[in-house]
Design a protein that fits this description.
The complex is a heterodimer of chains A (241) and B (132). In chain A, the strands form 2 sheets. In chain A, strands 6-7-8-3-9-10 form a 6-stranded mixed β-sheet, with helices on both faces. In chain A, strands 2-1-4-5 form a 4-stranded antiparallel β-sheet, covered by helices on one side. By secondary structure, chain A is an alpha/beta fold. The radius of gyration of chain A is 18 Å and the shape is globular. In chain A, helix 4 packs across helix 6. Helices cover 32% and strands 25% of the residues of chain A. Chain B is 81% helix and 0% strand. The chains are: A alpha/beta (241), B mainly alpha (132). Chains A and B meet through strand 5 and helix 2 of A and helix 1 of B.
Chain lengths: 241, 132
């Protein structure tokens, strides 16, 4: 027998996930794997079930069937805050920042795990120097890109093992989006696994290691972005991507 | 205030943290509750019986003793019986489940030993001189 190096389970694995809102089932057996240190793009047109998949993965919506595995552990029914404390960090659509608080005060909100404010600010400013310049500015008065940077910085301050980003490009200029995705790629290179939910596919494919295309609550294609051109076109049916 | 652990990488940290979170299992939680109920109900029943006995022994009139026997003695007896039933039912289920799991593990270990022995026998048959 040969000795094998111990391998860690995937940070996130969904198996045969079904989910419903009331009687209406919106996910019909979704399988998804986010490997270590990789960026996985979850793509699909509006109403494909991407955000519901994200909600199931983060414990905010219960799957009616199937398994949610985080770091190899079956976590169906686990509280979302418990998963967040364990290192599953979600950056929601719309950023989820406190617009009437300053950047520093927003970052202070990430000290709930017992991390010092100085450390949180240090991590944020190191990754996003622009936030350092705006540290005492009210968050709502910053540009959309800077607000998204603040949202990501607040998530990173908790030292997540799995980062889930919902619609990062929402309402942002293409140049800013490209800059943000470069930062996302940098975060992944530090060993953080990332699941990006995106409606506008082209913006994320440049940094994604794997892409998963959803349509009508099902995964229709999975693989390296370069291999999924045909499926992408079919999924979006001519929609702007 | 503390700084986050920097000794392990994000994946190892996630594994360590996820291993510690509580994942509710509705059926197991209900079973635990019923076992606790199975312990508490007989205790409550015995207390009611003792109270009934104490109050009934305080008077010589049978007409006064009967209500105490009914409200204390019979209710206490019923609680004790129901509680014991619950306790036995769910304790037995746990013991049988544990026994079954142990059987499966032992069976698996036994199978592994047999497979290993067969592999050794096969190796010996293929190479009777014992040289590589």
């Amino acid at each position: 027998m040969t000795a094998t190096a111990p391998t860690l389970e995937h940070p996130l694995e969904l198996r045969g996930i079904h989910a419903a809102y009331g009687r209406i089932e919106v996910l019909h057996g979704v399988d998804l794997v986010v490997p270590h240190g990789e960026v996985v793009a979850l793509l699909g047109p509006n109403g494909a079930g991407k955000s519901t998949t994200l909600l199931v993965a983060t414990g905010q919506h219960q799957a009616s069937a199937g398994c949610v595995h985080v770091a190899g552990r079956h976590v169906n029914g686990a509280r979302p805050d418990a998963l967040a404390r364990a290192g599953v960090c979600t950056i929601p659509e719309g950023r989820g920042i406190f617009r009437n608080l300053t950047v520093r005060e927003n970052l202070r909100m990430a000290t709930y795990q017992g991390v010092s404010e100085d450390h949180v600010v240090d991590v944020a400013v190191t990754r996003f120097p622009r936030l350092g310049e705006r540290i005492n500015q009210v968050a709502g008065t910053m540009s959309g890109g800077e607000q998204q940077m603040l949202a990501i910085a607040r998530g990173l301050a908790t030292d997540p093992g799995l980062l889930i980003i919902d619609e990062l490009s929402m309402g942002l200029a293409p140049l800013i989006v490209a800059e943000l995705y470069e930062i996302v790629a940098g975060i992944a290179s530090d060993g953080v696994s990332i699941l990006v939910v995106e409606q506008f596919a082209r913006t994320v494919l440049g940094v994604a290691d794997q892409a998963v295309i959803m349509q009508h609550g099902r995964v229709i294609a999975t693989g390296p972005p370069a291999d999924l051109e045909a499926e992408l076109s079919a999924a979006y049916l001519g929609a702007s991507s | 205030m503390t700084e986050p652990q920097s000794t392990s990488n994000p994946a190892e940290r996630l594994h360590a943290n996820v291993a510690e979170i509580h994942v509710p299992e509705p059926s197991a939680d209900t079973e635990t509750l019923l076992v606790k109920l199975g312990i508490m109900l007989p205790m409550l029943g015995i207390v009611l019986i003792l109270l009934a006995w104490y109050n009934a022994s305080d008077t010589a009139f049978v007409a006064d003793q009967i209500p105490m026997l009914i409200s204390g003695g019979l209710l206490g007896l019923a609680l004790a019986v129901v509680g014991l039933g619950l306790f036995i039912r769910f304790s037995l289920a746990r013991i049988l489940r544990f026994w079954l799991a142990r059987m499966v593990v032992e069976q698996q270990a036994q199978t592994d030993r047999v497979v290993e022995a067969l592999a050794r026998v096969e190796a010996a048959v293929r190479n009777p001189n014992g040289s590589n």
